[in-house]
Design brief:
The protein is of the alpha+beta class. The protein folds into three domains: 51 residues, no CATH class; 67 residues, Transcription elongation factor, GreA/GreB, N-terminal domain (Helix Hairpins); 82 residues, Transcription elongation factor, GreA/GreB, C-terminal domain (Chitinase A, domain 3, Roll). It is 30% helix and 29% strand. The protein has four helices and twelve strands; from the N terminus they run βββββαβααββββαββ. Strands 1, 2, 3, 4 and 5 form a five-stranded antiparallel β-sheet that branches. A five-stranded mixed β-sheet has the order 10-9-8-12-11. Strands 6-7 form a two-stranded parallel ribbon. A hairpin with a 2-residue loop joins β2 and β3. The protein is elongated.
Length: 212
């Protein structure tokens, strides 16, 4: 039995849990690299699960935080007043049970309120991590990294916060992903390994860049 444990569809989950008899197997999925599982399934006992399924790291890039703030401000100051007016107008037409405009926009208003509530709870808990010159030459949070393997396959992505890897950021990976963890503190030409269900994969660091 497989299920997402972070409230997202299975294809978007940060990690999945599979239960086989008395044991639980945990592995991570890195969405930015073709949804490939990046760690081998590791058997653990059920009582150890809470410690292994740690909360996502509460850090974010400056750009990521600004996007969340912009989204909040747009929803609260622009979109919500706009939808509220439509709901009020639709309600004035009479029977709401057969009023498609009222039903649709009332549902949309609830969705906006849920998202605003989520953002207001999330943003104060996030720590913005800005670029520092001391990061140059090695892989740290916020880096754009290009890697390559012996077959000549290459990947380029940015290591970012867990809240930044969805939507338009297809080339972002979470700092919590096994790929990011394996890359931390590596320099150009360093070799590193990531364990997958297919075995250990070896990669090399080709370039490291930081947005200034």
């Amino acid at each position: 039995m497989r299920m997402a444990v972070d409230g997202r569809p299975a294809s978007k989950a940060r990690y999945h849990v599979a239960v086989y008899t008395a044991k639980i197997y945990v592995w991570y999925a890195d969405d930015s690299i073709n949804h490939v599982a990046l760690t081998a399934s590791t058997p653990i006992y059920r009582e150890n699960l809470p410690g292994l399924l740690a909360m996502p790291t509460k850090i974010i890039t400056r750009e990521g935080f600004n996007k969340l703030q912009e989204e909040h401000d747009y929803l609260w100051r622009v979109k919500r007043p706009e939808i509220t007016k439509i709901v009020s107008w639709a309600a004035s037409l009479g029977d709401r049970s057969e009023n498609a405009d009222y039903t649709y926009n009332k549902r949309l208003l609830r969705q906006i309120d849920r998202r605003v509530h989520f953002l207001r709870k999330l943003m104060p808990a996030l720590q913005v991590v800005d670029y520092s010159p001391q990061q140059e030459g090695r892989v740290f949070f916020g880096a754009w990294v290009t890697i390559e393997n012996d077959s000549g396959a290459s990947r380029r992505f940015r290591i970012a916060g867990p809240e930044e890897i969805y939507g338009e950021n297809k080339d972002y990976i979470s700092i919590d992903s096994p790929m990011a963890r394996a890359l931390l503190k590596k320099a150009v030409d360093d070799e590193f390994e990531v364990t997958t269900p297919e075995g250990v994969k070896k990669w090399y660091v080709v370039s490291i860049e930081y947005p200034k």
